[in-house]
Design goal:
The chain is an alpha+beta fold and 141 residues long. It has one domain: HIT-like (HIT family, subunit A), CATH 3.30.428. 28% of the residues lie in helices and 18% in strands. It has a 5-stranded antiparallel sheet, covered by helices on one side. Strand 1 and strand 2 form a beta hairpin.
């Protein structure tokens, strides 16, 4: 496997913010803001779809700790928490990762989408989601 994040974990060459047995946090090469951090599972899981719930919980717990550290240590007034999973999401590295981007009022960046999707689904998307969650089934199309 040729995963850049797995390589960083194996070689220990990242700028580490935190290292744990299930989840780690490090700074990306091109941070969007001071303190921008990536939180990843220590084992390779491509995205949210294949990550076991207990690992996802550990990643989320570390995301929360990093966000709180950004607020206290960097005096950030907020954070953006960003993740993409799957080919239609613009996921850049096929290893689950969550960006924690510290934010300040008038910091000059925007991480929020500015447009709306042109994709349409058949039927009521809310009802389809509710049905899938209730039944455990996945809908296609």
């Amino acid at each position: 496997m040729d995963c850049i994040f797995c390589g960083l974990l194996r070689e220990g060459t990242a700028s580490w913010v935190a290292r744990g047995p299930v989840a780690c946090a490090f700074t990306p090469l091109n941070p969007l803001a001071p303190g921008h951090t990536l939180v990843v599972p220590t084992l390779h899981y491509a995205d949210v779809f294949e990550t076991p719930p207990d690992v996802l919980a550990a990643v989320t717990a570390l995301v929360q700790r990093v966000a709180e550290a950004a607020r206290t240590a960097l005096k950030a007034s907020g954070v953006n928490i960003l993740s993409a999973s799957g080919p239609g999401s613009e996921q850049s590295v096929p290893h689950l990762h969550v960006h924690v981007v510290p934010r300040w009022v008038d910091d000059g960046i925007s991480t929020w989408p500015t447009g709306r999707s042109a994709h349409h689904v058949t039927g009521d998307p809310v009802a389809r989601l509710a049905d899938a969650l209730a039944s455990g089934r996945r809908h296609t199309s």
